[in-house]
Amino acid sequence: MTSSLLDGLDDDQRVVAETLRGPVCVLAGAGTGKTRAITHRIAHGVASGTYASNRVLALTFTNRAAAELRGRLRQLGAGNVPARTFHSAALSQLGYFWPQVVGGDMPRLIESKGRILGHAAEKLSLRIDTATLRDLAAEIEWRKVSGRSIEQYAAANRPLPGSLDLEQTVDMLQAYEDLKDERRQLDFEDVLLSCAGMLEQEPRVALQVREQYRFFVVDEYQDVSPLQQQLLDLWLGDRRELCVVGDASQTIFSFAGASSSFLLGFASRYAGAQIVRLERNYRSTPPIVTTANRLMRDRPGALTLRAAGSHDDEAPIDPDLVRYPHDMAEARGIAQSILSRIEAGARAESIAVLYRVNAQSAALETALSDVGVSYHVRGSTRFFDRPEVKRAVLALRGASVSVAGEPLFKSVSDVLRSLGWSQTPPEGEGAVRASWESLNAIMGLVDQAPKGTTFRAFTDELLERQEAQHEPTMQAVTLATLHSAKGLEWDEVYLLGLSEGLVPISYARSFDQIDEERRLLYVGITRARRRLTLTWSESGQRRTRERSRFLQEIGTRTPDAAGARQRAAGQSARQ
After folding, report:
1. Angle at 458 (CA atoms; ends 456, 462), nearest 5 degrees
2. Strand locations in 194-316, DSSP E?
3. Which residues are within 8 A (CB) of 505 and not within 5 positions of it... i.e. 6 or more apart?
4. Long-range contacts of 383-388 (CB under 8 A, 24+ apart)
5. How far are the Cα atoms of 144, 195, 212, 243 from residue 95, in angstroms, in the given order?
């Protein structure tokens, strides 16, 4: 069993999987199979007897990533290994130990800071708009994950929210904390702080946690914050059984307190650490990999990717750079290009359009609707929050209790047909088509289920997805910001709005801020498997624009030549 777990890994991935004792640092570039490497490492450790499955804790940063880790570990026979976000692990420990250490129930967790901040503004007789309240919430989060007191925050020379001055900002931060304490509530950052405080101040708590978890694996380690690192250190104690995986070139959340310094400084903090580099990119074609490497050339911690994937069914295509006269022309040009690709046989769900800020999606939505292409805006109404999906999950769960012995497809399709699903999609656009696409996405999960999956096991997995907000694939083009595209991939990617003021964003002025924008574009580029189209417009919002400085470094073909080739391809597809 243990040897078969290593089959199919490349030489470097195999080193990761076979190095079962820490400290280990895996520097893993985009598309290099890092999740495959670390899940096989965990499964190999369990199968070989090196790890007890309940003594391992796999940590990541989003519910979706944690759900993916759990799914892969389950397929590899290590399904008992917990895979959690830092927050969920800390919340579980806090809920368990709070009655023993403090007494009574744990304080209630607030879902949003906005309401309390609104009450704080009323208390201080300040009139603050919603956008400023959101910025204040972000400042609270940054202060806490960075390990700063309110006094230290005041001295940090941060950009101030809205029209507030420093004194008003500090007063708001303090009033927020006071109100929260009066109401006996915790925010998400308090969960990490309280868990860390309990581990520091209660030796018996630390001893019990360290006895429970002896081996730690941290994915996306470049995104760790000082507060999360502090908590990780407390979980570890004086042990060194730690494996971290990350890519400094994909550090795109510095504004929220993330720091790649922990990844890049791992070897100096852990003497004798094993450092493994994963640089074989299995996702993208050689021209896309070359483009990504050019953008990150000579950057600190950057890996040099080598294209290793097989795309034999079609010749590699150089990334296109297309110039448009204005924003609406850009949106319409992309929509027409996507329509041509779909008419040529591309699947809508294999295409994404990525952009820097949410407001850029409006013109795209209009343009795609005009040409009849279905789309899904990532980050809008969440899949499992849609009414038709909620009804479907409840109906499937109820049916799974009484139905057994039928093929999975028949059991699921019978329930979904009663809710309006059919194998043939309804004509046109609108709410009926949107509802069908949601139900069809659930049917798509049947095809992904391992052979022999029972109806009950399928609905259990569906409930896990619902809890983790792990959305299935929709049969629609994805529209997403560059930040929300992290960790995803598509066959064809359009990067929209690559002009000065958008990428890099206008408020990015310092060297570090510009470098973060570079990394953000790198993440966008490396989402593409086969086709990459870069676009920009010469004017928008009543001002002229220049193409992004990053495009010059990438060295793509000239806009006119690229546009001519793309237009010719579109005409050919429609003939």
Report:
1. 115
2. 215-218, 242-246, 274-278, 280-281, 306-307
3. 356, 357, 517
4. 383/438, 383/441, 383/469, 383/471, 383/472, 383/474, 384/465, 384/466, 384/469, 384/471, 386/438, 388/419, 388/420, 388/435, 388/438, 388/439
5. 20, 9, 16, 27
Query: What does the pLDDT read at residue 569?
Result: 42
Mean of the per-residue pLDDT values of the chain: 88
Angle at CA 283, nearest 5°, toward 281 and 289?
A: 60
Q: Reduced to 3 states, what is the DSSP secondary structure of residue 453?
A: coil
Q: What is the percentage of the chain residues whose pLDDT exceeds 70?
A: 92
Residues 269-312 pLDDT 10s: 999 999 999 999 999 999 999 999 999 998 888 999 999 866 55
Task: Look up residue 318 and give its DSSP letter.
Answer: P
CB neighbour list of residue 110: distance below 8 Å, 6 or more residues apart: 116, 180, 185, 186, 187
The answer to whether 481 and 358 are in contact (CB under 8 A) is yes
At 333, the amino acid letter reads G
Residue located via tokens 């009414």? 387
Q: Which residue bears the tokens 């050339």?
A: 297
**pLDDT above 80: residue 235:** yes
Q: Cis peptide leading into 23, omega within 30 of 0? A: yes
Find the helix or strand (DSSP H, E) in which 427 lies: none
Distance CA 440, CA 268 (A): 51
Of 498, 510, 501, 485, give the one whose Cα is nearest residue 553. Answer: 498
pTM: 0.81
